[in-house]
Design a protein that fits this description.
The chain is built from twelve helices and eleven strands. The protein is of the alpha/beta class. The protein has two domains: about 250 residues, no CATH class; about 130 residues, CBS-domain (Roll). Strand 1 and strand 2 form a beta hairpin. The longest helix is centred in the N-terminal third of the chain and has 38 residues. The radius of gyration is 25 Å and the shape is globular. About 40% of the residues are buried.
Protein backbone atom coordinates (compact mmCIF):
# COMPACT_ATOMS: atom_id res chain seq x y z
CA UNK A 1 0.00 0.00 0.00
CA UNK A 2 1.40 3.39 -0.97
CA UNK A 3 2.48 5.39 2.02
CA UNK A 4 2.16 2.39 4.29
CA UNK A 5 5.87 2.48 5.17
CA UNK A 6 6.23 6.26 5.11
CA UNK A 7 5.70 9.00 7.65
CA UNK A 8 3.20 11.65 6.67
CA UNK A 9 4.61 15.17 6.91
CA UNK A 10 1.83 17.27 5.45
CA UNK A 11 -0.77 17.66 2.73
CA UNK A 12 -0.16 20.09 -0.12
CA UNK A 13 -3.11 20.83 -2.44
CA UNK A 14 -4.75 17.87 -0.71
CA UNK A 15 -1.87 15.57 -1.71
CA UNK A 16 -0.31 13.42 1.02
CA UNK A 17 3.41 14.14 1.47
CA UNK A 18 5.37 11.43 3.24
CA UNK A 19 8.97 10.34 3.80
CA UNK A 20 10.34 6.81 3.80
CA UNK A 21 12.73 5.86 6.62
CA UNK A 22 15.55 5.67 4.03
CA UNK A 23 15.13 9.42 3.45
CA UNK A 24 16.62 10.21 6.84
CA UNK A 25 19.75 8.24 5.97
CA UNK A 26 20.28 10.25 2.79
CA UNK A 27 19.47 13.51 4.59
CA UNK A 28 22.17 12.90 7.21
CA UNK A 29 24.65 11.75 4.53
CA UNK A 30 24.11 14.90 2.46
CA UNK A 31 24.50 17.11 5.55
CA UNK A 32 27.76 15.31 6.42
CA UNK A 33 29.21 15.70 2.92
CA UNK A 34 28.12 19.33 2.51
CA UNK A 35 29.57 20.25 5.90
CA UNK A 36 32.95 19.23 4.49
CA UNK A 37 32.43 21.24 1.28
CA UNK A 38 31.32 24.37 3.11
CA UNK A 39 34.09 23.93 5.70
CA UNK A 40 36.66 25.31 3.25
CA UNK A 41 34.94 28.72 3.25
CA UNK A 42 33.13 28.97 6.57
CA UNK A 43 33.55 28.19 10.26
CA UNK A 44 32.49 24.72 11.39
CA UNK A 45 29.23 25.97 12.95
CA UNK A 46 28.28 28.01 9.89
CA UNK A 47 29.24 25.15 7.59
CA UNK A 48 26.98 22.75 9.47
CA UNK A 49 24.01 25.14 9.42
CA UNK A 50 24.51 25.80 5.71
CA UNK A 51 24.76 22.07 5.05
CA UNK A 52 21.54 21.35 6.93
CA UNK A 53 19.64 24.16 5.16
CA UNK A 54 21.04 23.09 1.78
CA UNK A 55 20.03 19.46 2.31
CA UNK A 56 16.50 20.42 3.32
CA UNK A 57 16.12 22.82 0.40
CA UNK A 58 17.37 20.11 -1.95
CA UNK A 59 14.51 17.89 -0.85
CA UNK A 60 12.12 20.84 -1.13
CA UNK A 61 13.31 21.06 -4.75
CA UNK A 62 12.62 17.35 -5.21
CA UNK A 63 9.18 17.82 -3.67
CA UNK A 64 8.39 20.72 -6.01
CA UNK A 65 9.55 18.56 -8.92
CA UNK A 66 7.08 15.83 -7.92
CA UNK A 67 4.34 18.36 -7.28
CA UNK A 68 4.84 19.53 -10.86
CA UNK A 69 4.00 16.01 -12.03
CA UNK A 70 1.08 15.78 -9.60
CA UNK A 71 -0.55 19.11 -10.48
CA UNK A 72 -0.38 18.47 -14.24
CA UNK A 73 -1.66 14.92 -13.74
CA UNK A 74 -4.65 16.23 -11.80
CA UNK A 75 -5.39 18.80 -14.48
CA UNK A 76 -5.53 15.92 -16.94
CA UNK A 77 -7.95 13.90 -14.82
CA UNK A 78 -5.45 11.57 -13.15
CA UNK A 79 -5.80 11.27 -9.38
CA UNK A 80 -2.75 11.35 -7.10
CA UNK A 81 -2.42 8.91 -4.21
CA UNK A 82 0.48 10.81 -2.68
CA UNK A 83 4.13 11.81 -2.89
CA UNK A 84 6.90 10.07 -0.96
CA UNK A 85 10.49 11.21 -0.49
CA UNK A 86 12.90 8.31 -0.19
CA UNK A 87 16.45 7.06 -0.75
CA UNK A 88 16.71 8.11 -4.42
CA UNK A 89 14.67 11.31 -4.31
CA UNK A 90 10.91 11.34 -4.67
CA UNK A 91 8.00 9.65 -6.38
CA UNK A 92 4.48 10.84 -7.18
CA UNK A 93 2.10 7.87 -7.15
CA UNK A 94 -0.75 8.22 -9.63
CA UNK A 95 -4.04 6.37 -9.49
CA UNK A 96 -3.81 5.31 -13.11
CA UNK A 97 -1.66 5.57 -16.20
CA UNK A 98 -1.97 8.29 -18.82
CA UNK A 99 -4.65 7.74 -21.47
CA UNK A 100 -2.91 9.50 -24.38
CA UNK A 101 0.62 10.34 -25.58
CA UNK A 102 -0.06 14.05 -25.05
CA UNK A 103 -1.04 13.56 -21.41
CA UNK A 104 1.96 11.29 -20.85
CA UNK A 105 4.30 13.91 -22.30
CA UNK A 106 2.81 16.79 -20.30
CA UNK A 107 2.90 14.91 -17.00
CA UNK A 108 6.44 13.63 -17.60
CA UNK A 109 7.80 17.02 -18.68
CA UNK A 110 6.22 18.96 -15.81
CA UNK A 111 8.76 17.80 -13.20
CA UNK A 112 11.88 18.71 -15.22
CA UNK A 113 10.26 22.04 -16.12
CA UNK A 114 9.88 22.89 -12.42
CA UNK A 115 13.47 21.80 -11.72
CA UNK A 116 14.77 23.95 -14.59
CA UNK A 117 12.82 26.93 -13.26
CA UNK A 118 14.31 26.48 -9.77
CA UNK A 119 17.85 26.28 -11.19
CA UNK A 120 17.32 29.40 -13.31
CA UNK A 121 15.85 31.39 -10.42
CA UNK A 122 18.72 30.42 -8.10
CA UNK A 123 21.32 31.25 -10.77
CA UNK A 124 19.58 34.54 -11.55
CA UNK A 125 19.55 35.64 -7.91
CA UNK A 126 23.17 34.55 -7.57
CA UNK A 127 24.04 36.65 -10.63
CA UNK A 128 22.42 39.69 -9.04
CA UNK A 129 24.64 39.20 -6.00
CA UNK A 130 27.96 38.33 -7.63
CA UNK A 131 27.52 38.66 -11.39
CA UNK A 132 27.23 35.82 -13.87
CA UNK A 133 30.82 34.64 -13.43
CA UNK A 134 30.52 34.72 -9.65
CA UNK A 135 27.26 32.77 -9.72
CA UNK A 136 28.88 30.18 -11.99
CA UNK A 137 31.86 29.87 -9.64
CA UNK A 138 29.51 29.37 -6.69
CA UNK A 139 28.05 26.26 -8.34
CA UNK A 140 31.55 24.75 -7.98
CA UNK A 141 31.82 25.84 -4.32
CA UNK A 142 34.36 28.47 -5.37
CA UNK A 143 34.59 32.24 -5.04
CA UNK A 144 31.83 32.67 -2.47
CA UNK A 145 34.15 34.78 -0.26
CA UNK A 146 32.27 33.95 2.91
CA UNK A 147 28.87 34.86 1.46
CA UNK A 148 26.54 32.18 2.86
CA UNK A 149 23.59 33.18 0.66
CA UNK A 150 25.70 33.00 -2.51
CA UNK A 151 27.05 29.61 -1.45
CA UNK A 152 23.54 28.31 -0.83
CA UNK A 153 22.28 29.61 -4.17
CA UNK A 154 25.27 28.06 -5.92
CA UNK A 155 24.57 24.68 -4.40
CA UNK A 156 20.88 24.81 -5.28
CA UNK A 157 21.71 25.79 -8.86
CA UNK A 158 24.19 22.93 -9.15
CA UNK A 159 22.05 20.24 -7.53
CA UNK A 160 18.94 21.15 -9.51
CA UNK A 161 21.02 21.09 -12.68
CA UNK A 162 22.18 17.58 -11.79
CA UNK A 163 18.60 16.58 -10.96
CA UNK A 164 17.42 17.95 -14.32
CA UNK A 165 20.06 16.12 -16.36
CA UNK A 166 19.58 12.86 -14.48
CA UNK A 167 15.81 12.89 -14.85
CA UNK A 168 16.02 13.59 -18.58
CA UNK A 169 18.04 10.42 -19.23
CA UNK A 170 15.79 8.42 -21.62
CA UNK A 171 15.58 5.49 -19.23
CA UNK A 172 12.14 4.42 -18.04
CA UNK A 173 10.84 5.07 -15.37
CA UNK A 174 12.81 8.35 -15.23
CA UNK A 175 11.08 11.39 -16.70
CA UNK A 176 13.21 11.18 -19.84
CA UNK A 177 12.09 7.58 -20.26
CA UNK A 178 8.45 8.61 -19.88
CA UNK A 179 8.96 11.31 -22.48
CA UNK A 180 10.51 8.67 -24.75
CA UNK A 181 7.47 6.48 -24.12
CA UNK A 182 5.16 9.36 -25.09
CA UNK A 183 7.05 9.80 -28.37
CA UNK A 184 6.98 6.05 -29.10
CA UNK A 185 3.31 5.93 -28.17
CA UNK A 186 2.56 8.80 -30.56
CA UNK A 187 4.44 7.07 -33.40
CA UNK A 188 3.14 3.53 -32.84
CA UNK A 189 -0.34 4.29 -31.51
CA UNK A 190 0.15 1.48 -28.97
CA UNK A 191 0.75 2.35 -25.29
CA UNK A 192 1.84 -1.16 -24.36
CA UNK A 193 4.36 -1.35 -27.19
CA UNK A 194 5.66 2.11 -26.28
CA UNK A 195 6.09 1.01 -22.67
CA UNK A 196 8.10 -2.02 -23.77
CA UNK A 197 10.35 0.19 -25.89
CA UNK A 198 10.91 2.65 -23.02
CA UNK A 199 11.51 -0.19 -20.54
CA UNK A 200 14.17 -1.69 -22.80
CA UNK A 201 15.84 1.71 -23.01
CA UNK A 202 15.75 1.80 -19.23
CA UNK A 203 17.40 -1.58 -18.90
CA UNK A 204 20.06 -0.57 -21.44
CA UNK A 205 20.93 2.58 -19.50
CA UNK A 206 20.94 0.60 -16.27
CA UNK A 207 23.67 -1.68 -17.66
CA UNK A 208 25.69 1.39 -18.69
CA UNK A 209 25.36 2.93 -15.21
CA UNK A 210 26.34 -0.31 -13.49
CA UNK A 211 29.37 -0.65 -15.80
CA UNK A 212 30.35 2.99 -15.16
CA UNK A 213 29.98 2.44 -11.43
CA UNK A 214 32.28 -0.58 -11.63
CA UNK A 215 34.79 1.51 -13.61
CA UNK A 216 34.76 4.26 -10.98
CA UNK A 217 35.13 1.81 -8.11
CA UNK A 218 37.76 -0.51 -9.60
CA UNK A 219 39.78 1.59 -12.06
CA UNK A 220 39.50 5.15 -10.74
CA UNK A 221 39.31 4.15 -7.09
CA UNK A 222 36.18 6.22 -6.32
CA UNK A 223 34.51 3.49 -4.31
CA UNK A 224 31.58 5.49 -2.90
CA UNK A 225 30.66 7.12 -6.24
CA UNK A 226 31.06 3.78 -8.01
CA UNK A 227 28.74 1.99 -5.61
CA UNK A 228 26.20 4.81 -5.91
CA UNK A 229 26.14 4.70 -9.73
CA UNK A 230 25.83 0.92 -9.69
CA UNK A 231 23.02 1.06 -7.12
CA UNK A 232 21.06 3.64 -9.13
CA UNK A 233 21.61 1.60 -12.31
CA UNK A 234 20.35 -1.52 -10.58
CA UNK A 235 17.25 0.34 -9.38
CA UNK A 236 16.48 1.70 -12.87
CA UNK A 237 16.87 -1.77 -14.38
CA UNK A 238 14.55 -3.37 -11.85
CA UNK A 239 11.96 -0.59 -12.17
CA UNK A 240 12.02 -0.86 -15.98
CA UNK A 241 11.53 -4.62 -15.78
CA UNK A 242 8.63 -4.20 -13.36
CA UNK A 243 7.01 -1.63 -15.64
CA UNK A 244 7.19 -4.03 -18.56
CA UNK A 245 5.68 -6.84 -16.50
CA UNK A 246 2.93 -4.55 -15.24
CA UNK A 247 2.12 -3.61 -18.82
CA UNK A 248 1.59 -7.28 -19.66
CA UNK A 249 -0.87 -7.53 -16.77
CA UNK A 250 -2.78 -4.29 -17.35
CA UNK A 251 -3.13 -5.08 -21.06
CA UNK A 252 -5.53 -7.84 -20.04
CA UNK A 253 -7.99 -5.31 -18.63
CA UNK A 254 -7.57 -2.63 -21.27
CA UNK A 255 -10.99 -1.23 -22.09
CA UNK A 256 -12.64 -2.78 -19.00
CA UNK A 257 -14.53 -0.27 -16.86
CA UNK A 258 -15.34 -0.31 -13.16
CA UNK A 259 -19.02 -0.75 -14.06
CA UNK A 260 -18.18 -3.94 -15.98
CA UNK A 261 -17.00 -5.87 -12.91
CA UNK A 262 -18.73 -4.30 -9.91
CA UNK A 263 -21.49 -5.74 -7.78
CA UNK A 264 -24.37 -3.48 -8.83
CA UNK A 265 -26.51 -4.23 -5.76
CA UNK A 266 -24.36 -3.19 -2.79
CA UNK A 267 -25.67 -3.35 0.76
CA UNK A 268 -25.43 0.13 2.29
CA UNK A 269 -26.52 1.71 5.57
CA UNK A 270 -28.49 4.96 5.78
CA UNK A 271 -26.55 7.62 7.69
CA UNK A 272 -29.61 8.17 9.90
CA UNK A 273 -29.96 4.51 10.94
CA UNK A 274 -29.66 3.89 14.69
CA UNK A 275 -26.52 2.03 15.75
CA UNK A 276 -28.43 -0.75 17.51
CA UNK A 277 -30.30 -1.56 14.32
CA UNK A 278 -27.11 -1.32 12.26
CA UNK A 279 -25.43 -3.79 14.58
CA UNK A 280 -28.27 -6.30 14.80
CA UNK A 281 -29.75 -6.07 11.30
CA UNK A 282 -26.58 -5.69 9.27
CA UNK A 283 -23.33 -6.56 11.05
CA UNK A 284 -24.69 -9.63 12.85
CA UNK A 285 -26.77 -10.70 9.85
CA UNK A 286 -24.15 -10.39 7.12
CA UNK A 287 -20.95 -10.72 9.13
CA UNK A 288 -19.14 -8.02 7.10
CA UNK A 289 -16.45 -5.89 8.82
CA UNK A 290 -17.78 -2.64 7.30
CA UNK A 291 -20.55 -1.17 5.18
CA UNK A 292 -20.78 1.91 2.96
CA UNK A 293 -22.96 4.70 4.32
CA UNK A 294 -25.30 6.77 2.14
CA UNK A 295 -27.30 9.96 2.68
CA UNK A 296 -31.07 10.23 1.96
CA UNK A 297 -30.31 10.86 -1.74
CA UNK A 298 -28.17 7.76 -2.06
CA UNK A 299 -24.86 9.65 -2.19
CA UNK A 300 -21.85 7.99 -0.61
CA UNK A 301 -21.03 9.62 2.72
CA UNK A 302 -18.39 7.26 4.07
CA UNK A 303 -18.20 3.86 5.68
CA UNK A 304 -18.87 2.44 9.10
CA UNK A 305 -16.84 -0.35 10.67
CA UNK A 306 -18.16 -2.94 13.08
CA UNK A 307 -15.49 -1.96 15.62
CA UNK A 308 -16.74 1.63 15.61
CA UNK A 309 -20.30 0.52 16.30
CA UNK A 310 -19.33 -1.92 19.03
CA UNK A 311 -17.14 0.73 20.68
CA UNK A 312 -20.35 2.58 21.59
CA UNK A 313 -21.94 1.23 24.82
CA UNK A 314 -24.88 -1.01 23.97
CA UNK A 315 -27.25 1.08 26.08
CA UNK A 316 -26.43 4.19 24.00
CA UNK A 317 -26.64 2.67 20.52
CA UNK A 318 -30.34 3.35 20.14
CA UNK A 319 -29.71 7.08 20.67
CA UNK A 320 -26.91 7.48 18.11
CA UNK A 321 -27.03 7.28 14.33
CA UNK A 322 -24.54 5.62 12.00
CA UNK A 323 -23.35 9.08 10.88
CA UNK A 324 -21.92 9.71 14.35
CA UNK A 325 -19.29 6.95 14.06
CA UNK A 326 -18.69 6.60 10.32
CA UNK A 327 -15.41 7.40 8.58
CA UNK A 328 -16.05 10.34 6.25
CA UNK A 329 -15.43 10.31 2.54
CA UNK A 330 -15.01 13.58 0.63
CA UNK A 331 -15.76 13.77 -3.09
CA UNK A 332 -13.77 17.03 -3.32
CA UNK A 333 -10.40 15.61 -2.36
CA UNK A 334 -8.34 12.47 -2.77
CA UNK A 335 -10.26 9.50 -1.53
CA UNK A 336 -9.36 5.91 -0.89
CA UNK A 337 -12.99 4.79 -0.79
CA UNK A 338 -14.55 5.70 -4.13
CA UNK A 339 -14.07 5.43 -7.86
CA UNK A 340 -16.18 6.57 -10.81
CA UNK A 341 -18.35 4.09 -12.71
CA UNK A 342 -16.72 4.89 -16.04
CA UNK A 343 -13.14 4.84 -14.76
CA UNK A 344 -10.92 2.18 -16.33
CA UNK A 345 -10.43 -0.80 -14.07
CA UNK A 346 -6.70 -0.04 -14.22
CA UNK A 347 -7.37 3.06 -12.08
CA UNK A 348 -8.18 0.83 -9.10
CA UNK A 349 -4.67 -0.66 -9.04
CA UNK A 350 -3.25 2.53 -7.52
CA UNK A 351 -5.96 3.13 -4.94
CA UNK A 352 -4.98 2.73 -1.31
CA UNK A 353 -8.49 1.67 -0.28
CA UNK A 354 -8.44 -1.42 -2.47
CA UNK A 355 -5.70 -2.88 -0.28
CA UNK A 356 -6.73 -1.29 2.98
CA UNK A 357 -10.45 -2.08 2.74
CA UNK A 358 -10.45 -4.97 0.29
CA UNK A 359 -12.99 -3.11 -1.87
CA UNK A 360 -13.81 0.24 -3.49
CA UNK A 361 -17.19 1.93 -3.76
CA UNK A 362 -18.29 2.82 -7.30
CA UNK A 363 -20.23 6.08 -7.64
CA UNK A 364 -21.96 7.94 -10.47
CA UNK A 365 -21.11 11.57 -11.41
CA UNK A 366 -23.49 12.84 -8.70
CA UNK A 367 -21.72 10.77 -6.04
CA UNK A 368 -24.52 8.23 -5.63
CA UNK A 369 -23.41 4.73 -4.67
CA UNK A 370 -23.95 2.36 -7.60
CA UNK A 371 -21.77 -0.63 -6.80
CA UNK A 372 -18.78 -2.17 -5.07
CA UNK A 373 -15.64 -3.63 -6.59
CA UNK A 374 -13.70 -6.05 -4.42
CA UNK A 375 -10.04 -7.00 -4.55
CA UNK A 376 -11.02 -10.53 -5.62
CA UNK A 377 -12.97 -9.16 -8.58
CA UNK A 378 -9.96 -7.14 -9.70
CA UNK A 379 -7.69 -10.19 -9.38
CA UNK A 380 -10.08 -12.26 -11.47
CA UNK A 381 -10.19 -9.54 -14.12
CA UNK A 382 -6.39 -9.47 -14.25
CA UNK A 383 -6.31 -13.22 -14.79
CA UNK A 384 -8.72 -13.23 -17.70
CA UNK A 385 -11.97 -11.88 -19.12
CA UNK A 386 -14.02 -10.05 -16.52
CA UNK A 387 -17.04 -11.92 -15.29
CA UNK A 388 -19.17 -9.85 -12.87
CA UNK A 389 -19.96 -11.78 -9.74
CA UNK A 390 -22.07 -10.20 -6.96
CA UNK A 391 -20.02 -9.98 -3.81
CA UNK A 392 -19.87 -7.89 -0.70
CA UNK A 393 -17.13 -5.91 1.10
CA UNK A 394 -14.66 -7.62 3.36
Amino acid sequence: MFGGGSIQLARVFGIRIGVEPSWFLVLFLIIYLLTGFYGDEFSSDTAFVLAAVSALLFFVSVLLHELGHAVVARRNGIGIVGIDLWLLGGVAKMERDSDSPGVEFRVAAAGPAVTLLIALVCFGVGSLIAGGAGALDSTRFEGVAGDAVLALLGYLTFINGVLLVFNLIPAFPLDGGRIARAVAWKRTGDRNKATRIAARLGRGFSFLMIAFGAYLAIVVGELVDGIWFAFVGLFIGQAAGQAEEQTKITSRIEGVRVADVMDSEPVALPATLALDRAHDEFFLRYGFPWFPVIDPDGRLSGLVAREAVEAVPEASRGEQAVASVMALDSPDGPSGMRVGLEEPLEALLGLEGLTRLGAIMAVDPEGRLRGIVTLDQVKRALQGPADPVPTAPG
